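Fold these two proteins, one after the other.
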Amino acid sequence: MIRIALAQINPIVGDLKGNSLRIKDEIAKAAALCADLVVFPELALCGYPPEDLLYKEHFIKDNLHAVNELAKEAKIIAAIFGFVDMDKKGNLYNAAAIIHNGKVVGVYHKRQLPNYGVFDEKRYFISGNNEGLFSLNGVSIGVSICEDIWIDRGVVEEQVRNGAKVIINISSSPYDVGKLSQREKLLKEKAKKLKAPVCYANLVGGQDELVFDGGSVVYGSKADVLAYGKQFEEDLIQADLNISPSHRKKKMKIELKTSAAPKKTIKEIKAVRYTSIERIYKALVLGTRDYIQKNGFEKVLIGLSGGIDSAVVAAVAAEAVGANNVIGVTMPSQYTSDGTKSDAFGVAGNLGIEILEIPIRDIFESYTEGLKDTFQGTKPGLAEENIQARIRGNILMAISNKYGWLVLTTGNKSEFAVGYCTLYGDMSGGFAVIKDVPKTKVYELARFINRQREIVPSSTIERAPSAELRENQKDQDSLPPYDLLDKLLAGYIEEHKSITRNVKGKNKDIAKEVVRLVDRSEYKRRQSPPGVKISPRAFGKDWRLPITNKYSDL
């Protein structure tokens, strides 16, 4: 029997010292649990994705030095963790180090390099060609990295043909709404097909717009779950694999023996399963918390309009960093209704966050007076409306500059998609919490947040959404109903569909207008802050539409 522990940790990209300490601590914990082997995620040492840090030779060398220092920590047990390897020619590899008896005893180089969606590994790495096999207490084990296991008839199948009785996959698989079911289906099928346990160690934590959801798991050879890690939290799980030593004619290059103490039976741990909307909420909380804390902020600032978007962002922020670290600012104008003003104070009170009131009517009138001669002979319109949004953005950024608080923007995916947002106005800020959340999903989140008590006022949920930049303004004056808009946007953005060719009847003209709005708003999105990715295709790394672009799907 061998006992394998999976340590899903939350590293910080570039923090080689801090990440080394995390790995060191988990090795010690696993040894105390009498594990023979502890496994860490892909690129756990340097954090994932390191991106253009990989072009810094001194970063690579510091990372390699850290590998050798960590090897000294694995004396009683063995450990596997991800790092960046470099050969004599300067080629870089996404690699896994196997350490034992105080030294690096083996290295595996990732063979399948993903280059789609948010992945850009061929920009930095070259593919490996080693087999990734070693023996632990007589049991042959195959090591692979993330994408290696997703390929049919690939690396892990080859390892089993060459004698592997256990498959270990270290991964940094980012969250999106459909990823968990895909991942679990794949791993179950691999375990069943290969007739070998599959141990999958996944990263957890937020890194810019990406969120890694953990969920490390050990499947037995019959696809039964032997251990399951928490989602959206750090965790250390373990499983006992009752596998007889392999009988090989040829000696393996790496043969390890551990001297862990006698093992007590592991208590069965049942996995906590979340609903889809709960996973989205937890992803937003984790991504927001890590962006704030890993970048050294203590407090955040939110413009509270009394609308549903800012209410949901405030709730997420309060959950992420605590209500005492969230400050709301309400900035009423002459167009602000009593209802929205009341709701802004209502959500602040329900959350227990501080709220500041800064009226903007006099500031707006000074702007219009100053522009009177320049705007002479024109009718008031969008330019004047946007002045209000930009005044609010300037106020938030002024407070941010004065106190060092991070401004969280409150725009949703539907608005970012069609440009229903103001540059240097409501788009101002450092992090866009719900940037990848469609408006209809924002309402679902509000109801989820209210599952135990009212946090988002019911009047906020029931009121027709409005930017309140002119008298009696409603979003639907300018946009299709959000249920229709979000369906069209999902087809065009996430599914790559030509929606103008697939939509018929009265909605065809609406689809054409939606495409036109999405295409012409790219310049705005390029200037928007990063935000948590929850969909299969988010604006940012996933979406690279040219700003200067004459192709039309109309």
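Now the second one:
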Amino acid sequence: MRARWMLVVVMALAAALVPPPASGESGPVTPLPPVTDTDGFAGTCYSFYPDPFGQVPGRPFLPLMLQAGSRWDRFDFSWLQLEPREGEWNFAAQDQLVSDLRAAGMNILGIFLWTPNWAATGNCTPTPESLRLDLSPSLRHAPVLHPAVTPMDGIPPCMTTPPRGLYEPWNDWMTPGDPFVNTWGRFVYTVAYRYRDSVKHWEVWNEPDLSWFWTGTSTDYARLLKVAYQAVKAACPDCTVLFGGIAYYEKPNFYRWVLNTLKNDPEASANNYFFDAMAVHLYHRSSSIYDVTQVIRSGMREFVPDRPIWLTETGSPVWDDEAVISPTVPYIWSATMDEAAAYVIQSYANARAAGIARYFYFRAHDDYCDKNRDGDCRDEGIDYGMGELFGLVRDDRTLRPAYVAFQVATTYLVSPTMVTSVNYSGGVRRVTFWGTPRGKISVLWNNVPTTTVFSYPATLPTATLVDRWGVTRTITPSNGVYTLTLPGATANNGTSPSDYIIGGEPYLVIETDTVPPTATVRSVTVSRPPTVTVSWEGADDAAGIWLYDVQVREGAGAWATWLTLTTTTTGTYPVPRTGTWCFRARAWDRVGNRGDWSPEVCAAVTLTRTLHLTVDAVFGDEDGDGVQGADEPVLTATLRLLDPAGADAVSPTVGTSWEFTATLPVGEYVLEAVPEGWPSTPPGWLPRWLPVAVAPGMDHQEVRLTVGLRPHRASVYLPMVRR
């Protein structure tokens, strides 16, 4: 949710309004067929809105987003609307909204947001009633209350302040008459419990690193997140809690401050550090989706274990849409409609390459601020909404090029086995989706302003080239490469004219091979223990074998990874102990299809090692100190080395010393020394048993002992009664 949302918006681009024609000035945009087969990676924000002009019933943007391939909607569960006065709940519109979205097949990411006046803290500017939109159930939607009144004389809006009772225990609202109530904990629990069967994902606040949305400290936000996590998990244990989407650039260390606070909480490690996923908001520059995400992931790992990162807002505002605004004027961080379409595909590809778990485009439609279309966004009580044009579609439901680009992404760039990326020295960026339902797909674009001819190595004899309009054509390689002409970047409304924030036209190169390869473990051979030599092979009928994964397990235990993405077809596995060891392999072909695991091949392995045992002397250890004294006699004894089953591991001997070399299974043995004449009556000497461990290893194991037998001083006889 952009900080530019204002009830009163004054911008040069809104100077005059032209009534929107049926399509953009560049002609109508033709959508691709509705996207029915996608992987749920992509969503949009605020697709549930009614027609801004009141001419079409229902939720006209919702089916458009579903047809675009969006499977998520992200929007507010606004506290100051749901509980406008303490204890007075207003769920009718939100209930209808949640029901409509779930019936349409849309997943929901809800945002817990805004402090009502009655729960606000500190000296703050109350949220005026005039900011509250009509909440009557007849609207059949939950309207978004746009932030926020402009702070007056440095006094923050009450809706941005930490809620009353935030530092009380999260559930300190169950005791009647208790004046110290955690109002936030009660709100979050009530909402999460009410929608526990329909809404499984919750984002805690929006852009808490911006004072536009949150005027508390980072410590206050850490507490807000902790209380929300505890309340959600109590209401819905299988729900996912997201750190509030960070805007990053204004306070790039804010999330680190919060995580440092959470890390030092004694309850944190037992509660997943009070969040299940990190959320980020990155706009305008398509490369930031990859680069900044890596920085945030690295920073997060300094404080807490790694977890998923969701891109819950991204987008690029357009300046050249004469169907909505006139005159059209470029401004910083804005793009043309064509550049914004390129941004969709580039940001989507970079998100996948960065390991982002979910992608939300901001936004479904413009919600443009001039609601009465009089060329002025300042008509109080009438005009509200966005001062920039972010929508995939306009408010009149006509499509922008970005809509079709979104369809291209959600149609083709789905369900990869893995994603890789490369930046070439000439300015070309390649993100490759391996093993998709259509094969190997590389997204290519040019980040510099000059046209670049790029040679792309071919895997198959032909490929399909797809542009951002979804237009396809077949291409063939020459001398093993596809030659592609990549247009230069044009989006230079960044910090300087030489700063290109979006690359040039992106293209998809699809090499179609959807049949996975097969793999076989050829042999498992017990080589010199403790090693096992394993060999495997694969077969593929098109792209050819690329890589292998190999797993191992002991007996009927769990499979464990041994080798990952290896090009080798043989390996030596160091078996740690005697037992049955099994191996299986799977193959990857050169377009990223990953085959099934092969049947296992097992081998019984008995680990052995050569033992050189020396018994220097057997003596009577009169004083029991283990050291043969001058007056302690040498004794003759029967010496045996017993295996774990109690049998002789080597032939016994009789003598005062013993030395032998033998190759034995690894394990625990016992050296038995029985003195000559045993059993005897006192005085005499007692037998002795000493442990000898044959440990795993490749070299000879040396064991040297002296055996001191203890004196036999007395015998006790116990009567035995037979019945």
